Amino acid sequence: MLANGKPASRCWRGDMKSSKEHPKAHLPFGGCAMGKRGAADELALLLCRELYEFTDGRPMAWGKAVGDQPSLLMAMDHAVEHGWLLLDIRDGSVCLTEEGRRLVRKTLS
Fold first, then answer.
1. How many angstroms separate the CA atoms of 109 and 91, rounded?
2. Which of 5, 27, 51, 58 keeps 20 to 30 A from 12, CA to CA?
């Protein structure tokens, strides 16, 4: 969920996928390294898409993600590492970079 009372269109926990057959299926990303990478990309893209929708796609518009779930923090970290998000460490707000906006627009078309 993003701050300012606007709910996110998806639930973070509901979007995580894991195999029930895997012994660590109760853990996020099924406890496997390959799953973590794919899930990190997926969650980071979801975060970017939600921020894009929250800010109506405006460049350099800031929003604040609500929550401190490990998956949300990992998604933010992953998006920052890939140059899709800027993070203001003073208050935890995030902003899409041009590359992040481009990535989201590409997935929407």
1. 32
2. 58
